[in-house]
Amino acid sequence: MTLWNAVLLAAIACLALKGIGYLVPPSVLEAPRPARISDLLTVALLAALVAVQTFASGQDIVVDARVPAVLVAAGLLWMKQSFLVVVFAAAAVAALLRLLGVAA
Amino acid sequence: MAEASIDSAEQVRNARREAIGVALATSAYGISYGALAVAAGLDIWQTCVLSLVMFTGGSQFAFVGVVAAGGVAALPSAIASAVLLGARNIAYGIRMSPVIGSGFWRRAGAAHFTIDETVAVSLAQTDRRARLVGFWVTGIGIYIGWNLSTLLGGILGDVLGDPKTWGLDAAAAAAFLALIWPRIKQRQAIAVAVGAAFVAAVLTPVVIPGMPVLIAAVVAVVVGWFNWFSGPKEKTA
Q1: What is the tens place of the pLDDT at every residue in B133-147?
Q2: Which residues of A26-46 are buried (b: 16+ CB within 10 A; e: fewer)?
Q3: In a 3-state reduction of DSSP, which class is residue A57?
Q4: What does the pLDDT read at residue B1?
Q5: Residue B178: inside a domain, yes or no?
Q6: Contacts with B, A 23-82, CB within 8 Å
């Protein structure tokens, strides 16, 4: 398999996955149970992504500069700061800690 | 009546402002994707095709991450990781389908823009029109910004060095936290978020990349099925 084959195959597969959800008839979500589950699914997926983005390095769990950065982000969110402020502050905290050699 | 429409216009304005903020910040860490992809051995065209066609950040990072670690021999698992991570967009599509409405081209366009950020911004709104504005402004904004920053990151990759130096990995984590923040007000959502984060972290060393996030989704299915942790105040869904 060439790199190009893999790029195109993966890209088209991901594009197709996005379309599948729209083919499910909306009436499926009218009952309370499926509606509740589909709402909670988006919460679960985002929460899992937060965990993986914060602690995963390949298949290892590590505690590095991302952890204090995410804690600062949480504090700023608590103070109702905007998305932009939160994301840039997190990047700045991680970059600074690494620059100072305090965290990996 | 007049009061209701003023309120709605206000909500639409808020949704637009929020969408632009999310689009700008997300686009900024597209630079990190572009730089990582080129460092992993993709050429600039392959890097850009993934942003244009795949257009789902988690899968793109997973793909180039696996290629960087394993080279050409790892291509099948690179594809598998991208697809596994992209599978969450099925859940997002089911949820967004009734919000988007009818019309083939509108739905096809919406499907391509169905990613973490657009769904999160849209569902954080309560007004119907604000949900639509939030979705489309975020989607179009990120599509333009993400593809431009991918190109920029790919070109500048060698100059920038390791994206971690700039804290771009922490930016991605903070962005997901900011996206989930407005959604975790009720006890049930908080329970699901904590449970899913725990499951994903515990499974990371055990299963291949992409799987922890998907398996964590089971937490939502179980809690939602049995309606556990539903607060006494929870009347509206």
Answers
A1: 999 999 999 999 999
A2: eeebeeeebbbbbbbbbbbbb
A3: strand
A4: 43
A5: no
A6: 24, 26, 28-29, 32-33, 35-56, 58-61, 65-66, 69-70, 73-74, 77, 82
Q: Based on the domain organization, do B102 and B190 belong to the same domain?
A: no
Residue of B nearest to A40 (CA): B220
Please answer yes or no on whether B193 and A29 come within 8 Å at the CB atom.
Answer: no
Q: What is the pLDDT of residue B210?
A: 74
Stretch (H or E) spanning A60: strand A60-61
Q: State what percent of residues in chain A have pLDDT above 70.
A: 100
Residue B18 lies in a domain: yes
Does residue B114 share a domain with residue B207? no
Q: What is the pTM of this model?
A: 0.84
For residue B163, the one-letter residue type is P
How many helices (H) and strands (E) are present in chain B, helices listed first?
A: 11, 0
pLDDT in the model for residue B5: 64
**Residue A74: pLDDT band by 50, 70, 90 thresholds?**
very high
- In terms of CA atoms, which chain A residue is nearest residue B37? A7
Instruction: Say yes or no for a CB contact (<8 Å) between B53 and A12.
Output: yes
B167 and A68 Cβ atoms separated by less than 8 Å: no
